[in-house]
Amino acid sequence: MRSLFLRIFLWFWVTLLAVVTVLVVFSPLLTQTRPRLAQWETHAEEWVMGRVERVAQEIHQHGLEELGSERGRYHHGPGPGRMAPPRVMVFDVLGNEVSGQPADVETRSLALQAVEHGQPMTQRVGGRHLSARPVTDPNGKRMVVVGVAERPPQLTDLLEPRYMVPRLGALALVAGLLVFWLAYHLSSPVSVLRSATKDIASGNLAARVGSKVTRRRDEIGQLGRDFNAMAARVEALVSAQRQLLQDVSHELRSPLARLRVALELARRRSGERAHDRIELECERLEELIGGLLEITRLEGVLSGSEAVDLVAVLREVVADARFESGNENITLEIASSEPLILEGDQRLLRSAIDNVVRNAVDYTPTEAGVDVAVTSSRNEVTVQVCDRGPGVPEHALEGIFEPFFRVERSRDLRHGGTGLGLAIAARAIRLHGGTIRAVNRQGGGLLVEIRLPARR
After folding, report:
1. Integer Cα distance of 294 and 355 in angstroms
2. CA–CA separation, 188 and 220 (whole Å)
3. How far apart are CA 95 and CA 114, in angstroms?
4. Could you give phi then psi for residue 330, rounded to 5 degrees?
5. I need a surface site. Which of 69, 78, 104, 204 has the fewest CB within 10 A?
6. Phi, psi of 241 (to 5 degrees)
7. Is the dihedral of CA 244, 245, 250, 253 positive or negative?
8. 203 close to 300: Cβ distance less than 8 angstroms
9. Which CA distances in Å does 404 have to 237, 357, 412, 422?
10. pLDDT per residue over 133-162, tens digit each?
């Protein structure tokens, strides 16, 4: 079946037909007379007629005048199926009620029919049962005694939970199984697609949808095949980009090495000043190439992970920053006495934090300080690096984590940066499932905050 719409449409009708089939098969059980209602239908006529016979006997023997005090006793006590006591009325041959009871058209009509035919008659209308019997009093006056029993069927009579619940349960089970199968059949491939999409988004470009989905001949199967084709194309493009970047970096390093050799030869023959400048530019070029290669490596997923003591990494980074910059005002504040253990690559984490700290040191005057603080909560570790530099314009706070982004080109070149340090840090942090952001501090300076999931 090649159309998902047609499949849903047909399965709806299959389910409906299955339920109707069950209804037909079990129709004798579903439509049989309910016990309580059957009890009323079976015994109401006999019960009401018995009351009418007794009242008629009283009239025949003693007359209507003696019935007033006796008639009330025939109104007490429920009948079958908890039916209310019947009302007993007496009519003359003209259809007038003579006992003081209110009478409706149906009751009066039955009384006239009994007078006309001269024999007992019964009639049932919905939940009302009427019985009429002609009688003659001691003076020979003809009358008709009519009894009316009213018992509207109750909801429990019509449903009869003891009998209906199992049958309705069988119907619900059949329909539920069919609908469950249909829901599972439609939702399971969507879950597979969602899982593969999450893998692609997390950097695993080799993720594909399995053959269980791609073998389908409906729209979902076509979507799975299109997804695999898209993923393969994206993986090929990214792989080609990485390979190109690696090839370019490798080709740049070869002439760079030859340039260094030529520089050393030239230095021996002439002055030092120009050659020092050339050597500085070579170092910057090599740093740029190293940064590009690092960015390329951080495009994928972690190749492995280990337990990393973040406090030890921070102490090492801060000690190196003090030594290399000569600034003793770089402080480290640790809010927790417990070891802060993370799961990840120690080299990448150290590189990320080191790039953030070095960036803060580069833009902070020597007499000012850089503050590094680490705090932890139940499932997260937060590292904050605060400098005393000029800060960053608000519109550029997110851009500083992109490769080669420069807030002010002249200022950045003066500090000798390649524009890759914070980009490398951001990608390393994201690979570890963390986040990094920058905000301007009140009073000047920049605050870079790193949040990483802690291992418990």
Report:
1. 12
2. 10
3. 10
4. -90, 115
5. 69
6. -65, -45
7. positive
8. yes
9. 22, 18, 10, 10
10. 999 888 888 999 998 887 655 555 555 566
